[in-house]
């Protein structure tokens, strides 16, 4: 039986430790060591890779037999039903340009159901974390925004690095939200966007072409903070399905706009 509060404390400490490494590297970052993955704007650096190695090594010791799904290529099938879903540096493009935010994202799933999530936003030194006991920011309870009207909401989104054939419909969604809300922000780190929804700084977030490591921890933290997470159809395939809509009291209204333009209604 896993002691989730104790494991949560260990993962928080690990995130802060690796965050210190990333913070140190940012001071003298060598842009010449940046590589391109699929899509010319999808970047990876030696900092991403080294951070993932540190995280995987430590988590493997915390929970022997667990598997891994990591952005930088770690794919390990464990001998138990537990899998870590990790992004060692969410917001790499921001990082390489010296621009916040960027974060570490670590989620733990049991048979594909997330049970623990930690997001450490490095620039502000803020750790968002959750178990089934609730969601917290630096040990203080958090909750999604109480706003229930889209007209009073501030939203966030992101843009895909590839598969642009759906961009017209996506821009129609954005255009509608720009007309109906206080505005849309594009922060460049989906994990941070989700953390900000969880603590009420943003009312909602939506994006497509996402990966499990982008959203596993963040969607769980949002849910434990009282919010709702769905795919664009309104279903539960938002970790592996690539489509995500999250929010508090504005989620239903957000989803209605998305489905209208996405062809799901």
Describe the protein's topology.
Elements: H1 4-27, E1 34-36, E2 43-45, H2 46-62, E3 67-70, E4 75-76, E5 82-90, H3 92-96, E6 103-110, E7 113-121, E8 126-131, E9 134-137, E10 140-141, E11 154-157, H4 167-180, E12 183-185, H5 190-198, E13 204-208, H6 212-224, E14 228-230, E15 243-247, H7 251-262
Parallel strand pairs: 3-5, 11-12, 11-13
Antiparallel strand pairs: 1-2, 3-4, 5-6, 6-7, 7-8, 8-9, 9-10, 13-15, 14-15
Helix pairs in contact: 1-2, 4-7, 5-6
Number of helical segments with 4 or more residues? 7
Can you give the helix content as a percent range? Answer: 25-40%
Structural Rg: 17 Å
CATH topological fold name of the largest domain:
Fructose-1,6-Bisphosphatase, Chain A, domain 1
Number of domains: 2
Explain the overall architecture.
With 265 residues, this protein is an alpha+beta fold. It contains seven helices and 15 strands. Helix 4 packs antiparallel against helix 7. The N and C termini lie far apart (44 Å).
Based on the model shown, name its key terms:
265 residues, alpha+beta, Fructose-1,6-Bisphosphatase, Chain A, domain 1, D-Maltodextrin-Binding Protein, domain 2, 7 helices
């Amino acid at each position: 039986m896993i002691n989730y509060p104790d494991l949560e404390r260990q993962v928080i400490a690990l995130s802060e430790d690796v965050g210190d490494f990333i913070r140190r590297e940012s001071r003298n970052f060598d842009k010449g060591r940046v590589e391109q993955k699929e899509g010319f704007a999808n970047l990876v650096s030696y900092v991403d890779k080294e951070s993932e190695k540190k995280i995987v090594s430590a988590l493997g010791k915390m929970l022997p037999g667990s598997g891994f799904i990591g952005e930088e290529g770690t794919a390990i099938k464990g001998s138990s039903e537990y899998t870590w879903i990790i992004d060692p540096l969410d917001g790499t493009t921001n990082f390489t340009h010296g621009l916040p935010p960027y974060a570490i994202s670590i989620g733990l799933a049991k048979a594909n159901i997330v049970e623990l999530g930690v997001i450490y936003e490095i620039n502000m030194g803020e750790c968002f974390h959750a178990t089934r006991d609730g969601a917290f920011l630096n040990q203080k309870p958090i909750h999604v925004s109480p706003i229930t009207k889209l007209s009073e909401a501030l939203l966030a989104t992101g843009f895909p690095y590839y598969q642009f054939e759906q961009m017209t419909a996506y821009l129609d969604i954005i255009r509608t939200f720009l007309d109906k809300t206080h505005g849309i922000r594009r922060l460049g780190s989906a994990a941070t966007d989700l953390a900000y929804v969880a603590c009420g700084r943003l009312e909602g977030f939506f994006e497509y072409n996402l990966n499990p490591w982008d959203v596993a921890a963040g969607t769980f933290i949002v849910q434990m903070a009282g919010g709702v997470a769905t795919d664009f159809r309104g279903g539960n395939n938002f970790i592996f399905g690539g489509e995500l809509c999250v929010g508090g009291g504005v989620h239903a209204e957000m989803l209605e706009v998305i489905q209208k333009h996405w062809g799901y209604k």
